[in-house]
């Protein structure tokens, strides 16, 4: 059984979807802890499912590196097989990434490498894109530059706002995330080979 830690900053909609999937007896992964960088509404989902939580408030530390050290200490207590960033609106220090990669994944509301960064949906609209998407990636020390594990296109409609487009991307993100976690748990997806060139036929 794959053990998963989830890190959030907000409402935790992806977390909720993952918790619901993991509640099924035939799902091969379990969320063992939920952490956050602020007092997040998503903690309510963890509480409902009986999942322990921890809080490492970013603003209480003098630097990103000191925050990362405490975050790493909290994660190490649980020693999960996989860490999922689920709307964590904070760049992780390189020390945390190095400690967990490639067992550290994130979702992004764009079809990477298109529109990386914190405003992927807004940037797609500003660029006049006719389609965008959702991606699940391995986290590296860049900004949404890690190996892509799964992605899917989402059309941009003529009357889309940032909110309406994001609301249509979110279900795709959730579905991709759940499938990626399942494939990691079953061994179908080998994170140690993520980003490796495909074998020559």
Describe it.
GO terms for molecular function: phosphoribosylglycinamide formyltransferase activity. Pathway: Purine metabolism; IMP biosynthesis via de novo pathway; N(2)-formyl-N(1)-(5-phospho-D-ribosyl)glycinamide from N(1)-(5-phospho-D-ribosyl)glycinamide (10-formyl THF route): step 1/1. It is an enzyme of class 2 (transferase). Pfam families: Formyl_trans_N. Its EC number is 2.1.2.2. With 201 residues, the protein is of the alpha/beta class. The chain has a domain at 2-106 and 136-145 and 170-190: 3-Layer(aba) Sandwich (Rossmann fold). It is 35% helix and 21% strand. It contains six helices and seven strands; from the N terminus they run βαβαβαβαβαββα. It has helices at residues 13-22, 43-48, 64-78, 94-100, 120-126, 162-186, and strands spanning 2-8, 29-36, 53-55, 82-85, 104-108, 131-138, 148-155. Strands 3-2-1-4-5-6-7 form a seven-stranded mixed β-sheet, with helices on both faces. Helix 4 links the parallel strand 4 and strand 5. Helix 1 packs parallel to helix 6 (162-186). The longest helix is centred in the C-terminal third of the chain and has 25 residues, at 162-186. The chain is globular. The chain starts with a strand and ends in a 15-residue tail after the last helix. Residues 197-201 have low confidence and may be disordered.
